[in-house]
Write a structure and sequence with these properties.
This protein is mainly alpha-helical and 121 residues long. 60% of the residues lie in helices and 0% in strands. It is elongated, with a radius of gyration of 16 Å.
C-alpha cells in the first residue's frame, strides 16, 4: 500500500465515510453527490492507495494515520500519527513490534467482518 498517497479532500471524506461502514448510497446522501460519483471516488482511492478492497481502504486509513483506533468520529483534517517514544533494547522493540502486529491483525479481522456484514462495492 502507498501510505503517502495524494488523495483529494473529497476522496478523503469518502474514505472516512467508508471507514464508518456507510454504504455507497449512504455516503452519496451524506456528501450531496450521486452514487456514481461516490463509486468514482472509491475507484480512484483504490488505485491511488494500492488497496484492492473497501476493507483494504479502511486499513490504509488506519495505517496512514487518517483514523486512530478508539477515536470517536473523524478529525476535520488528516492526522499524522504521533512518533512513538524511542525504545531501548532489542527485546523492547520486539515486544512493541509483536504488539503492533497483533493490534493490526485484530483490526483487519474486525474490518473484514464488518464489511462482510455490510456488503461490498
Amino acid at each position: 500500500m502507498k501510505l503517502h498517497a495524494a488523495v483529494t479532500p473529497a476522496e478523503l471524506e469518502v474514505a472516512r465515510l467508508v471507514s464508518c461502514g456507510l454504504t455507497n448510497s449512504a455516503i452519496a446522501t451524506r456528501i450531496y453527490r450521486s452514487e456514481d460519483t461516490v463509486k468514482c471516488h472509491i475507484r480512484h482511492l483504490l488505485r491511488k492507495t494500492g488497496a484492492t478492497t473497501r476493507s483494504g481502504l479502511v486499513i490504509w486509513m488506519y495505517e496512514s494515520g487518517h483514523v486512530a483506533p478508539g477515536q470517536p468520529g473523524f478529525p476535520d483534517h488528516a492526522r499524522r500519527p504521533a512518533s512513538p517514544p524511542p525504545l531501548g533494547s532489542a527485546a523492547a522493540r520486539s515486544r512493541a513490534a509483536s504488539h503492533l502486529h497483533r493490534t493490526l491483525t485484530a483490526a483487519r479481522a474486525a474490518v473484514d467482518a464488518a464489511l462482510t456484514r455490510l456488503g461490498t462495492l
